[in-house]
User: What shape does this take?
Amino acid sequence: MHDDDEALALHALGWILADEPRAERLLGLTGLSPDGLRASLGQRATLAAVLSFLAGHEADLVACAAALDIEPDRLAAAAHRLEGPESPERIHA
Assistant: This one.
């Protein structure tokens, strides 16, 4: 895993949380509570969920990438790496 992916996920999370409806949608879709999100910020699965949330909503993905001054595909690629099969925390459905 790239440490940059974790940093990128945290920056993206900051962008998400700056907008209350978007933050509520993240919590609703991930099933996390605000306390649960805070407690799990160091976990790869949580960071992957943050980036996957963006990757699943193209308008948010593009807007977040613009705000972070990066290409949207960097966010999507980071999500893919964080979700990778090498992750011991990956939840298999």
